[in-house]
Amino acid sequence: MLEVKLHDVGEGMTEGEVLHYLVKVGDSVMTDQPLVEVQTDKMVAELTSPCSGIVKEIRIEAGEIVQVGTSLLYIEIDEAVRAVQKSYVETKSIAEEQAIPTIKLEEKSPHMPFNRILAAPYTRKIARDNNINIDDVHASDPSGRISEEDVLRFLKGQQTDMESKKESEQVEVDQEVPDEIPFRGIRRKIAEKMTKSLFTIPHVTHFDEVNMTNLFKMREQLKADGESVSVSAFLIKALVISLKDFPIFNAELDEENSRILLKKNYHIGIATNTDSGLIVPVLHDVDKQSIKEINANVRSLTAKAIAGKLQPFEMKNSTFTVSNVGPLGGMGATPIINYPETALIAFHKTKKQPIVNEHDEIVIGHIMTLSMAFDHRVADGATAIAFTNRFASLIEQPHKLMMEMI
């Protein structure tokens, strides 16, 4: 009998929340098959089976928070099953598959091939907390992914069926009962970090506008030449160049030792909106990457964050954070710094509007607003303005940005 324990999946975690078991007692499992989803401070991790065998006991219920080292389930190592599974994987010939009791194996192993309902961990949590089997919920999205709204609609439908005898009265009762969302997991960690940042750092937010017209023209020319690069990649590259000129914003205040640490690495956090909440994957050593590499790496990190597939090292050691909320709309905001960093910059929606050019002519330009929050203990407003001026000059005159990379 093999004991499967909650182990440290990274960042020195001490506890985790058991979100969802992907197997049940009696299932046959293969080596490396996902067994259970666990919520850590920052991510959802899958614990896999260390061996082939049969699940004999599940000791911890889904939804419980347990310490690292706690036994979650037991697997009985079944040599016969392992031999069958090994043969099933390693041999592909029809003759060998017929020789193996394949039908019996499938009857014992409903998870082979492995089949999961598509839903975010937070959506699964809402379903579990309302005693809903997520397998019974129909997805409204064509991709088949079940959303939080799907679960809530399912919940309201059940309530209506159960109390159909008092329709008018029941409607009033349902309106008075608020929906509940558990304040746990990533949502709780976001809240804790934001509160610590806001109550520790004296925030000042500086607003500015950047003329994106020339950058858009260059990007369109690149697109016509077959090179598709996001605006974000240019903005991040310009930021890193500006940070080298103003290292005070790529820093961390060490209060205990009364010193400001100017970081030599340029690791940019990319604030990403996901179904589970705000996640900040980190793009490491951006100063060593080309704009094309930044573009590809940002896309990869964002996709992983949305899918909940980030590795622990991809969420550590950021020195400055970027929040690109422009695609979502909105003209401005007062962002909260990603503690213990010194500053965070948010890019907002770019709008067409009349501007006066260098020939005193009124023309249509593309103007983006930005808001930069910084730690007033470490830097002052004049330095923040100089920093954003430098950044804006690189974006408004892209040839300067190109010159910095030669």
Q: Would you identify the regions where 5 or more consecutive residues have pLDDT less than 50?
A: 99-114, 159-166
H and E order = EEEEEEEEHHHHHHHEHHEEEEEEHEEEHH
Helix count, DSSP H or I runs of 4 or more residues = 12
Question: Largest sheet, if any?
Answer: 6 strands, mixed
Mean pLDDT: 84
How many β-strand stretches?
Answer: 18
The helix content, as a percent range, equals 25-40%
Shape: elongated
Strand order of the largest sheet: 9-18-17-16-12-15
Radius of gyration: 26 Å
Tell me the span between the first and last alpha carbons: 61 Å
Structural class: alpha+beta
Characterization of the model:
This protein has 406 residues and is an alpha+beta fold. It has twelve helices and 18 strands. It has a six-stranded mixed β-sheet with strand order 9-18-17-16-12-15, covered by helices on one side. Strands 1-8-6-3 form a four-stranded antiparallel β-sheet. Strand 13 and strand 14 (277-279) form a beta hairpin. Helix 9 crosses helix 10 and helix 9 crosses helix 11 (381-396). The N and C termini lie far apart (61 Å).
List the SSEs and their pairings.
Layout: E1 2-5, E2 15-21, E3 28-29, E4 34-39, E5 44-48, E6 53-58, E7 65-67, E8 71-76, H1 79-90, H2 94-99, H3 102-108, H4 121-129, H5 148-162, H6 167-176, H7 185-200, E9 203-211, H8 213-224, H9 231-245, E10 251-254, E11 259-262, E12 268-270, E13 272-274, E14 277-279, E15 282-283, H10 291-307, E16 320-324, E17 343-356, E18 362-375, H11 381-396, H12 398-404
Helix pairs in contact: 9-10, 9-11, 11-12
